[in-house]
Design a protein that fits this description.
It contains one helix and 36 strands. It has about 525 residues and is mostly beta strands. The strands form nine sheets. Strands 18, 20, 21, 23, 24 and 26 form a six-stranded mixed beta sheet that branches. It has a five-stranded mixed beta sheet with strand order 9-11-16-13-14, with no helix packed on it.
């Protein structure tokens, strides 16, 4: 049985067990304590499904707590109140047993728990799963299109592409890879690598503070090389046609993995050779012409030598040599190579450079001979480099030609527009100083006229012959050290004295030769 009453302070309506009639309870809403009135007709209600636990509701410091219920119209009760439980704070009794109320203990009225439901939990789990799916998809899209994986802070290791082929330097500090550009994979390859068509990608470890030289030689393609340190390329170089070569120096800003991207300017598939070496400063040899009038040095240009050159697209490794030269003396400097077209640069003590290029009328690209008269006395630096990515062996020869004269110097006199001479090379004859390796020579001094055409023929049955024509300023006018026994025809640009040299092809050249000079109509 229950009774219906209300709080006199907040007027909240309560349904209480009939046992609490005449007792003081505490309103759960306004915390006010009030006295439950005695049972009167109309106050009692019969509640099914209600179980009451006895409680001690005598005047105590902590009276029972009464929870408000919905207001019930006295004239019409629509529905019975929901079942409630009376829970004893200290020693709750079994719900099935009713005991006398102990007024020394307070009773707390607690509503019955609502039935358990999994609907909210299922909805929450679905929402969390959907959010995780969206985040993972966004991360994948950003990594593929914006390349977030390769964005890094200084000092961190660059993220590698799945396609990158790992390569490393050998024990000698160099490496060589034979590769081929391949069509891009639009699923696996990053978007930044697909801009130039077919490519190949390598991963290599580089160290900060060191300089690395890279070389790419294309078989049928003009290669392009880019070095990636993180997301953006830090170096970019394209090869030149028709050489299809490039050489590039790169100094990393951070330690770690870097990406080497090899592509082509033609956007085609092709083979290439990639070489790399850590740049090392070569020793600068020093020699003195006071001890001997001519010095011959045989060296080579390698990829690990320092790069020099005003035009970076045609730069090449270089070697330097130091030599002491005297003012107003006549020096002959020559450099020859069968592997590349050599170039020569001379620096004085004030670091002023003088570059010697091949004369337009000198057909042999692999041999350069230059006269040089210093305007000061001191130490000079002679730099040998290659034109357009030269690598290989070379020979440098420096000769003090001030007081050097050949053993035989023949004065030419024409008779009826013709001159003939037969002589032999002897072991005592000097060797030709313009190129290392050439043999003995004889020099003929002849006066030639401007715009007059001449024909020079040199033959020998004992050895190969070389023929050159030099003006009075020691400049090569005609001839080629590889013409052999072929006749030479030329027309002087000015009138004056010229020197025609008959040269043996090597130092073992011995025997007779025949020289003939004709004035052509």
């Amino acid at each position: 049985m229950t009774l219906t009453t209300s709080c006199p302070t907040c007027e909240s309506l309560f349904r209480l067990p009939a046992e609490l009639a005449g007792r003081q309870v505490r309103c759960q809403k306004c915390e006010n304590t009030f006295l439950v009135p005695e049972v009167a007709p109309g106050m009692l209600e019969t509640t099914t499904g209600m179980s009451a636990a006895p409680a001690d509701v005598s005047a105590t410091p902590n009276p029972p707590v009464a929870e408000p219920v919905e207001e019930v119209i006295p004239t019409e009760i629509v529905a019975p109140a929901p079942p409630i439980e009376i829970v004893v704070e200290d020693e709750p009794a079994p719900l099935a047993v009713a005991k006398p109320v102990d007024a020394s203990k307070s009773a707390v009225l607690v509503p019955s728990p609502a039935p358990n439901t999994w609907t909210g939990r299922i909805l929450l789990a679905s929402f969390i799963a959907s959010a995780l799916l969206v985040l993972s998809g966004s991360g994948w899209w950003l990594s593929r299109n914006l390349d977030i994986r390769s964005t890094r802070l200084p000092g961190q290791t660059a993220s590698l592409s799945p396609r990158a082929i790992p390569i490393e330097f050998g024990l000698d500090g160099r490496l060589t890879v034979i590769g081929q550009t391949r069509q891009p994979d639009f699923v696996r390859d990053d978007a930044r690598f697909r801009l130039d068509g077919p490519f190949e990608l390598y991963a290599i470890h580089l160290e900060q503070g060191k300089t690395y030289n890279f070389s790419v030689i294309g078989a049928t393609i003009s290669p392009r090389l880019r070095v990636y340190d993180g997301r953006l390329p830090h170096a970019d170089r394209s090869g030149l046609v028709p050489e299809n070569k490039l050489i590039m120096a790169y100094q990393p800003k951070h330690n770690g993995e870097h990406l080497l991207l090899v592509s082509t300017s033609q956007r085609i598939i092709g083979d290439f050779i990639l070489s790399a070496a850590q740049q090392r400063a070569a020793k600068v040899p020093r020699f003195d012409l006071a001890e001997q009038p001519s010095v011959v040095i045989k060296e080579s240009l390698r990829l690990d030598h320092p790069l020099y050159g005003v035009d970076p697209n045609q730069s090449s490794p270089s070697r330097e040599f130091r030599v002491t030269l005297e003012r107003d003396r006549n020096y002959s400097i020559s450099v020859a190579s069968d592997d590349f077209n050599p170039k020569l640069v001379i620096f004085d003590r004030n670091n002023q450079a003088m570059e010697f290029a091949r004369p337009w009328n000198q057909p042999n690209n692999n041999i350069h001979t230059f006269p040089y008269i210093p305007n000061i006395t001191g130490e000079f630096r002679i730099r040998v480099t290659g034109d357009k990515f030269g690598l290989g062996d070379f020979t440098l020869r420096v000769t003090d030609a001030t007081n050097f004269r050949p053993v035989h110097s023949v004065l030419v006199a024409f008779q009826d527009g013709q001159f003939e001479d037969r002589r032999s090379f002897l072991p005592t004859d000097p060797n030709e100083p313009s190129k290392a390796g050439l043999g003995p020579y004889k020099e003929y001094v002849v006066t030639l006229k401007k715009d007059q055409r001449y024909r020079v023929e040199l033959k020998s049955d004992f050895f190969g012959i070389r023929l050159t024509v030099i003006d009075d300023k020691a400049q090569l006018v005609a001839g080629d050290t590889k013409l052999g026994n072929q006749p030479l025809e030329f027309t002087p640009a000015f009138s004056g004295q010229y020197h025609i040299r008959a040269i043996g092809e090597n130092r073992k050249a011995r025997g007779e030769y025949h020289l003939r000079i004709d004035q052509l109509p």
